[in-house]
User: Fold these one by one.
Assistant:
Number 1:
Amino acid sequence: MAEISQGGGGGKKGGGKVRVKKASTKIDMTPMVDLAFLLLTFFILTTTFNKPKTMEVNMPDKVQDEKEQTKVNEKDILNLVLSENNKIYWYIGLTPPVTTTNYGKDGVRKVLLEQNRANPKLMVLIKPEDKSKYENMVDILDEMEITNTKRYAIVEYTPDDKTIIAAGTGGAPLETETTQP
Amino acid sequence: MGKVKVHRTPPSLDMTPMVDLAFLLVTFFMLTTTFAPEEPVVVDIPKSVSEIILPDKDRMIISVAADGRVFFDMDNKNHRRDMLQSIGQKYGITFSEDQLRSFSILSGFGLPVGNLPQFLDMTPDERKQVTQPGIPSDSVNNELADWIVFARVSNPRLRVAVKGDRGTDYKVVKQVVNTLIDRKVLRFNLITGLEQEI
């Protein structure tokens, strides 16, 4: 085992002289080493290296004053309504057609890329319904990151959106949204 | 003297370098390990491609369980103690020294303020048996808002992180987010796991 040897353990040469018998300086290190490895194993197993990741979200402040609201042309607005069962409704401005899509690669990502290319001034409004899941929100924020969409905001899902989706009736009252990217 | 003795070398090996290395590693792991605090509720975090790492200190975590219960957690013992005292003042509850101490080493919790003294008097084992109802965060009774305010008073550098379960209804998340916005916390983090495949 691990040992420190010095001297060779006493004199054997046995001359005439009486030698002082040296005590062995060997230390049995086995228990210490055992303990060291036990601790090592324990700490290796308990250490978590991958810390949780986060995504940063900036929300617009609530603006009370009508004047401070930014007015956006309705043609520049892409509405994404996150519905239940992982469904997304999307439409431009305030008018149908309303199209259904999903969170897949060929779903909302394609829509975002196409719309971004078509209109550089695009502003995306994310409107999660109460019944949509938290995962949907994270997924859609992720898609914003992936498609490099800078101008987006999470806003309230209003009854107006509901009418647009439900009936497909155009000409809902024009409404200015409070939006800051 | 006729026989030739086979000179046997003792089968000993110098293990000193190995032991050195072992201790070096032990020291390293001991110093780097931070024990994951016990969570009062299991939260299955969603995946994202974001790679920003959650800060280790000056953070407040608002966990939202799948069933909509809201939990609150903050680091730093001293700040927690300050926070509880201010909360106590607001709600007219005086916390004893023991209660303050056990709160400061507690991890996340999800209880209305009124139930806290009773909860803090329990032993850690008893606390595990209790199903925590979550912090009230609706518009009628928004205690979460008070926690956020007093947490930020006790530590102004606090980062806010929201840790939601994948299956949580957006309704609850909206409540939490609106509470944050109302208290002028406009920039916060959402805790996510790393997605392997993009």
Number 2:
Amino acid sequence: MAEMTTNRIPLTAPPTQAALADRAPVVREGVTLEALPEGTILHLLARPTQVAAPFADKVAAAGLDLRVVAPGQWFATAPTVMSGADLVVLSQALKPEVDVVDQSHGRVGIVLHGPLAARVLAKGTAVDLDPSAFPVGRSATTLVGHIAAHLTRVNAERFEIVVQRGFAGSLFDDLSQMSLEFARL
Amino acid sequence: MTSYRLPTGGLVDRTAPLSFTFDGKALSGLAGDSLASALLANGVRLVGRSFKYHRPRGILTAGASEPNALVTVGTGGRSEPNSRATMQELYAGLVATSQNRWPSLDLDIGALNGLLWPFLGAGFYYKTFMWPGALWEKLYEPFIRKAAGLGRATYESDPDQYEKQWAHCDLLVVGAGPAGLSAALAAGRAGARVIVADEQAHAGGALLSETATIGGASAPCFAAAMVAELQSLPNVQLLTRATVFGWYDDMVFGAVERVQKHVAAPQAHRPMERLWRIVARRALLATGAEERPLVFGGNDTPGVMMAGAARTYLNRYGIAAGRKAAIFTTNDSGYALARDLEAAGVELAAIVDSRRQRPSDYRGKARLISGAIVTDARGGKSLSSIRVSHDGRTEDISVDLLAMSGGFNPVINLACHRGGRPVWSDAQGAFLAPESLAGLALAGAANAVTGIAACLADGAEAGARLAAELGFAAAPDSTPSVEDDIIAAPTAPLWSVPGSKVKAFVDFQNDVHVKDLGLAVREGYGHVELAKRYTTMGMATDQGKLSNVNAIGLLAQVRGVSPGEVGTTTFRPFYTPVSFAALAGAHHGRHFQPVRKSPMHDWAKARGATFVETGLWYRPAWFPQPGETHWRTSVDREVRNVRANVGLCDMSTLGKIEICGSDAAAFLDRVYCNPFLKLPVGKARYGLMLREDGMVYDDGTTSRIAEDRFFMTTTTAYAAGVMNHLEFCSQALWPELDMRLASATDQWAQLAVAGPKARAVLSQIVDDDISDAAFPFLAAGEVSLCGSALRGRLFRISFSGELAYELAVPAGFGPAIADAIMAAGEAHGICAYGAEALAVLRIEKGHVTHNEINGTVVPSDLGLGRMVSAKKPDFIGRAMLAREGLQAPGRAQLVGVVPLDKADAFRSGAHILAAGAETTLENDQGYITSSCFSPHVGSSIGLALVRNGAARHGEEIVIWNGLRGEITRGRLCAPVFVDPEGGRLHG
């Protein structure tokens, strides 16, 4: 690395701009829609034949939740930002079975919670959200309306949606529209 | 007044009157009424005019198949033409208007068509309006369209919301009549996830119109008890006002729910209609049977009604559809109506039974005429008499209501939506659903079962059987005892009656009568598909629900074959009309398609950017400065500033793909036509991707971040396409390669910093040494930024031809880093530039985009032939690229174009002609693919694909734009207008 220049232009505050900073929570009767804080979303890529995740312990030890994306692919998520150093450590620990692509800025989380969350989501996704078919902890990559997204049932009445940053505002607005029939009057 | 409300009876709420209007006249109905029943209660029986002959028409049915009582409901943006009055629930303030009449429903000039009827038979306009041909579009067609028709759609926008919803179940039961309800209960009690959908406002189906008692309770009460139990089961969902309109692949059913079509003041936050897509593991059609009309003269006269409908109006709505009735029947169902009418005190003049044998158990007072037919109904706008023919005699009977029943057609439409053909049954005298439908079964009257008890049992058995197939142990309940049910056993169909004096209608809605079908057969259109098109039978909005089987029977009769041999036309969705609004759902207006925003969107917006839609993205096109009133002023300034100083441009919309794994380099080497295997770590390379057919697919730079990791960029437009392509290559073509892919487009805010002062600006941001020696052209790597505040990726690549870098930072940092770059660049005269300036800069340099990569060019056409590796054993497109034609002389090649006179301009799309050549297709030499005003050249410039273009630099040509009538003299030149040696890149 070259010699550090002292006269650096600093990053102005706030250094990061959340994709959904301007979207206030939408509170309906029985369902609430909120943007999640932009924490950590790592895309873990193994061979497509890899179904189980033998590395789950390492991911958990790093404080991340594991969510299935596709055969051989997972998201490892955390509500807080992971430091670059920790990311390097984890990436090295997972080699060579798994490659890590940081998507913490590329993907944005949106949460729908409340007793009517599944009802609202069913307006967008073809995934069967009945607890028998989509239990807690299950994830699916699906379209929500016209937008590709990654859906996880976090608990009985809470669904987290991970969407590409560029579509986050549009998806938030679409979900708001889908929940409109339960508006508080 | 003919029809009227009885003092008692019906399921209507007599304490809840509702006012409404029909053709401006104030009327009153009751809660629980349909619009049709409310009109009948007010004695209104003329409700519409027919499509072609403008015949007076009344209410024929009480359900979804109604062909006559079509009205416009609502006003303004909410007006809905061709609404079936029989399906429209009454609400307070409903405004209904009759259609296809002028000046009024009662006095309709168009009815003169009826006098011309000998000339207006099937196909008349094909024969009549033959010549002169020019008059067809100008006169005949507009006239015919004006004279015939139904309601008119409004031009106002619909103020309401619509939405779509998915649902999943083990068993979908279509129809909540006796069979459907008992099936749903059997499966629901067993624990299966059941959805029951019914088109009516209340579940119960035929039970709501029935006077039999079931298990000691009235039929409607029995239905209500079944519904209550269903609603108590958490695994059962009951959808009312929901018409299942189609059966699609993968056991998906479409249904439309009329959420607020029945309310006086729709709530803005709720949808008007909801489109359901129901995924069912099994489905049961309990859709009942449609009563078959009888085809006799004047059978469309208001006052002639289906017997089952008359019974529904009587028992469900408490309405006598006439004061003096007759029944014309071929089966026992007419006797159920006879019994109920007499019990309600309505005078029943006669029962005309086509059968010789008298039913033994009729004990009413009406005169029973066996072996008889009704040949004609008379009365014009309201039935006054019928002519009965029996034993060689005719007699006229004065009545104002004639109820008819020609037997029953099981409603099997959905069962045939996936290609199955109905099967004719002589025993049932009806078409039945094809057998062995995967996943779908039928029960009750749809399954040709007759009688309430049998339908309950059939439904329960089917529900239990389908649940058991899915592993839910179910035991069908014992069927309750049913009393006073008149069961109509199947009888031989009566397709037509002889001796009618006036038109006997087969298809009421399209005004097709018996003689039209005979004409079709005589003129060679006897095949059912041809007869349909020749006569238009079955082609109206009711899709021939009442008419098709009769038409088939009549065709069979004329051709002397069985109805089975005639066959049916193809059943297709939709079962009943579905509004476009429901199909569009929420996807209209600003929700029509998603908006995709760069992480720099708000940053650019705050700087006054004018945006341009590119696909789903909104990209800054240019950044107007104070005083700039024309886009060209802004763009020219931005271009000049980049060439003179430095500019900042958002490149975040480029597709970005991370490619990892020990075989990542080998993978790229196969995907690109130029070599990538030995690209060193820390280097970027321009890559050209071909399709299998050898044509250029996409281009972009790919950098090696680490030994086993690459960062690919694609064009904005093909980002998703390239990702799919790579996935296909990885998963299907070369699964043996150890490599993996992830789209990282949205992870990075990518900023181009271009211009001679780019390094001076960026070196204030980047901590690492970015001197030309340390970070030369095509260097790439991770860098530290802003005093170790952040890490990013820096690429020494250039689209503008200037000294340039692209800096990628995690997306959320984009605006802050852009601010930092602008602050650092202030002293150097930095400006933000948009997609327009970007385009000018790249055209000046002859860099291609998808304007040039148009699917017909190979690398050599673009002057990139030397990029194609001759050493690699294989890559996508290699084999097909070797085709003779793709290497032959005379292909269109990339050239530059300038006007001879700098004041002249030309546009993309204009064609190139040799100077002096005639403007013919044969003389076409190619076309302008990209054009702009170049501040550097001082005139319009263009890139073009021109035959043999590479060898024609300097040739004078004509740029011809036939669309705009522009002819410009120009010259072909090298496609690089600025710095052809590329010295600026390496500064």
Number 3:
Amino acid sequence: MDLAGAQLTQPELARLAVSNIAQATVVPALVKVKGHWRCQRCRSQFPVALPDGRFYCPECVTLGRLTDQDNLYRFDQPHQPVGDGRLTWHGTLTPDQQAASDALMASVTAGRDHLIWAVTGAGKTEMLFPTIARLIQQQQRVAIVSPRIDVIRELAPRFRAAFGTTPITVRYGGHFDQTDSDLLLATVHQLLRFYQAFDLIVVDEVDAFPMNGTPMLHQAVQQARRGSVAYLTATPDRVLKRALHRGLGVSRLFRRFHGHPLPVPIIRLMNLQKVPHQLPAAMITWIRQVLATKRVCLLFVPKISWSEQIADVLRQLGLKTAGVASTDPQRAEKVMAFRQRQIDVLVTTTILERGVTVTQCAVGVISAADREFSAAALIQIAGRAGRAADSPDDPVVFFTDRYTLALLAAKRQIVMMNGR
Amino acid sequence: MRCIGCDRPTDRSLQLTTLFAHGPLLAPRLCHSCLSRFCLITGATCVGCGRMQPTEQLCSDCRKWEHQGRLLHNRALFAYDASMKAWIYQYKGLGDYRLHVAFQDLIAARLRHAAALVPIPSEPKHFELRGFDPIIGLFGCLRLRSWLRKTATERPQAQKTRQERLKTPQSFHVLASEQMLNRARQITLLDDLYTTGRTLYHARDALVAAGFKGTIDSFTLIR
């Protein structure tokens, strides 16, 4: 087994039955820097004291606890390439996509970080293919990571199809297997198990929860990198926009791959006091109208408990409905059924706001004024509609009982991007 | 204050009744939505072990315990569902000691009037591994009496089947003298989890064998 670039703990070595640790560099898991403990795996500086006098790092505890008595084993030998990186994808890029792809390639060659600021449905994934193919052909190593498991699940089959002859490792949710492949698809957390291992790290949906507001995950990217980092998002946050002035390369794509503008959301004011036990008649009429146009309907709700409650209400009206939330063990199956149109209405929390592509899908947001929906989240949600070339004008409606800045900002930004 | 479950500002605050009640003043550390993931035990429970059931009758397990002396009349806060399993895994399995304050306000409110609180100790080997005692962590907000000691057993209870658990031999020693024990009229044993009851009944037997004459009941976080 090739452990190149891995950064592992003692229990992980035991689980993988690694006997030859002579080639590993052993470093203490927690070190004292200027009087403060710092975790060498995730770089956070707020360890917690244990009653027996040890300290442990609470930020990365889900990957196995590290205390100041533990060691980390870093395997820094060179990576042995296993795949040839041949591109088995035969589509063509639009001129806009080609330009962005070339700019990314130039940034990576120059060792610069790069931001691809592309509207939802611009075809970001396809733009990556030429650069990744070339790096792997040059025997380099690439990781594609995202803070969202759903995004990784969605990307995995597309990458497997595009790189048919290259082995791909897919890793998320505590599952740990081999480390020997040229292309890794994983959640950002998994990068904590690597140290200076990748020549290119692509971070998809970089502004999504939990990566926004968790500096530890940004550190995970930094310590796993050896070359460039490419950030992909439709809604860059302030930190990324500021980095543009400091030499971050950028490609802007404000047009979808099919060339049609983004659907502009309609804001509909109504009384939502009885939600989720009862839905306003106007909302039900809208859902029925949408279904009559051969579309399916994705309804976003701000609370986990609402997804099932509203699904129940709609089921009683005779609609084929399911509710999903992050706590739902069957959510992958339900999304699959929705995609195959066995379900007409899917009620979901913001977990499906990104990376999900369903064709001919109308989008409604219930109680859009809730604090759960930031402007970035609303833009992402609106971006679920109009993904296919044959129905670019799927309706997007924000149902709300009041206006908020986030609502207006989201609508304004979509109009702005359409105008560019 | 921030919720230790989701790190968002908490929406549960101290109640006025808590402020004036007897006992330590402890703030809630979980927000409403994090707390609602767990199943609080309410309504009818078995009088012997505190498990949730339709009637207040003794469950079949407790009827067996009844033959071996007085029942412990265990009370518990939460049912052992998937989210509680996940919580226990993070606390005891991964060793995330931050979580030890999660239920401190609820625990303190329930045990405010208890006489002598005796925690079930963890094995020295486990303490070394974890760096903390999970039971003392959970109940450390109250005045505890460490009257029991546990000797090493071959395997932890969590890795055994139900039958193996019930056959576990006695491994508790009482550290306190008979005189000191009997200064208390009532002892409440504290543990994190009541599964078969074997551990708690062993602790009771050890206390009785050491000469304790009062009543013994028990309280666990989970049933």
